[in-house]
Xaa-Pro aminopeptidase
Amino acid sequence: MNENVIAPGGPAGSTVFKDERKQAYLNPEGADRPLKSPLPRATLDRARRYRLGRLRAKMQEWNCGALLLYDPVNIRYAFDSSNMSIWTMHNASRYALILADGPAILFEFEGAEHVNYGLPGIDEIRPAKSWIFFTAGDLIESRMKQWADEVADVIRSQGRNARIAVDKLEPAGAFELRKRGFDLLDGQELAERARSIKSADEIELMRWTIRVCEAGMARMYETSEPGRTEREIWAELHFENARSGGEWLETKLLTAGARTNPWYQECSDYEIKAGEMISFDTDMIGPYGYCADLSRSWTCGHRAMNEKQRELYAAARDQIDHNLAVLRPGLAFAAFNDRSWRIPEKYIPYRYTLALHGTGMADEWPGVLLHPDFDRNCSGTIEQDMVLNVESLIAEAGSESIKLETQVLITAAGAERLDTFPWEDV
């Protein structure tokens, strides 16, 4: 199973202890070529229709005349439209308006309308009216009123009622719409509840994103050698994602050795030493805009774990395996909590507060807290065709942290793992 081989990219003549199971995830077409999706266009087109249909169904359920979206993840879900997603997350310069009984309109950044040509869910493309301070300055008020007038005119002429669901909107914009007689609802809840139930085509798209992520993880594994920096290893995931059609990484959660505890430190120029634990969480928005949120931990130089590392790793695997076995459709969050793995007292101060969370085009609803924190959890039920992530973070005073996470589809029979990148042998 394992053998000493020449380390790709390592010093001439050097060897490291390798795991052939992980080498199998490297791009079979060669390290110098990106992965290319084998999925037919029909799969994507069906997923597009399904997603827009999910939003419209929720609008009907909420008796909502219009849905106004600014969150680029929600716009991607609705239309498969992606344009400057990270920039528009903090610069509200493009938006979508979906009418319950009328057209779906994309208001695109001026000059970029052409990037949306051919997207089947969009009935009309208009130039966006931006009123952010960066571009509007002392003209914010007049531009905001022009924006509100246009939105109001569309809804009054083609909407069923004055109830608008809005996901993200500056307070001044909300006031302008209310002054025009509209009731505002929580569009983020509407969108995330719609997004939480996946179609079979969505799952195929997610499987491909996970394939790309695991190829990136294999590159990370191959370069986990003494003297590498945390940032060097993290960059391998960026590289594989970007060249294979992916989008971005939501976090920079890769650390090594003592820097793994406490968790949530970001990757740095720390040079990793042989035998130190490397722990990471991918949080990768990949091809087709879907998220691959996987966590693994292994030792630098692929050395055998020491006694403490093995103890912590075994506990993390116990938590993952136990909670996977509990999952089934129809299980209330509270019932899951009652049956979930109990974290030992010595690990509690260093815990990860989430036991489960939803995943789609990003981390999303629902979030289910670990049992010591569950008294402040929301209510809800695990449903068939949700995609959930099962989490573990195990550490104690003075130790390294082990971070493990797997992504699963809830089926009638329970939890089906979507990722297959091997765990470590301990």
Summary: The chain has a mean pLDDT of 94. DSSP finds twelve helices and 19 strands in the chain.
